Amino acid sequence: MEAISAKLIHRLTLYHCILSYSLEKREYVSSAEIASLLKIDDSLVRKDISFCNVQGLPKHGYKVLELKQKIENVLSFHYAKDVFVVGAGHLATALTQYSDFKDYGINILALFDNNEEKIGKMINGKRVFDIKRLDELIKRTRVDTVFLTLPPQCAQDITNKLVDSGIKYIFNFTPCVLRVPQDVKVRHENIISSFLQMKIS
Questions:
Q1: Is the pLDDT of residue 176 over 80?
Q2: In the 8-state DSSP scheme, what is residue 131?
Q3: Can you name the CATH fold of 6-74?
Q4: Nearest to 142 by CA among 102, 112, 169
Q5: Half-sphere exposure at residue 50, Cβ-oriented, CA atoms within 13 angstroms
Q6: What's the first-to-final CA gap in the chain, in angstroms?
């Protein structure tokens, strides 16, 4: 995975979505068809697919099932990754409802919050723990990845505690730019930014 660029991972994930939901009943698909759906160059699609070590057939293209499985292998879909969700509000609830996570190797173990009315309850089959138990449960489970869905005013403080507990990967759904050590990776999931980029482009 270290040899794969972020852009290639993004494109392969899009190819997989197309194969899974748009062309799942087809036996073959051409690189030109994928390129047309994504409005990108056909040669780029062929180059990406060659990275997956898949050979197409003349006048037919690539076997849909084989290409889908190869992409899953390259992107380690079958390697399960346990994740904690920090914050148990509406966004966290939506994340736990997303059933396709399991198909991509993402396993939400539990949620954390400081709201006594939520602590101990189950949200879509996932228990909500007191946020005071974060350090204990991170160390017990060896989870190193979190989805951060907290109010912005407490995001940095909780991030500091997550880092101290050993978290290395943070998917940040808050509007805050988090300060973390160099060995901790943060992915800012900013829906507003993405919308504005599309709006003004």
A1: yes
A2: G
A3: Arc Repressor Mutant, subunit A (1.10.10)
A4: 169
A5: 6
A6: 31
pLDDT for 1: 45
Does residue 163 contact residue 181 with C-beta atoms inside 8 Å? yes
Q: Which CATH architecture has domain 81-196?
A: 3-Layer(aba) Sandwich (3.40)
Distance CA 167, CA 141 (A): 11
Helix count (H) and strand count (E) of the chain? 8, 9
| pLDDT tens digit sequence for 63-94 | 999 999 999 999 988 888 999 999 999 999 99
Nearest to 88, CA basis, from 62, 123, 56, 54: 123
pLDDT at residue 104 is higher than 90:
no
Give the Cα separation of 191 and 193 in Å (integer).
Answer: 5
Q: What is the mean pLDDT of residues 137-143?
A: 96
CB atoms within 10 A of CB 30: 16
Sorted by where each begins, the domain ranges of the chain are: 6-74, 81-196
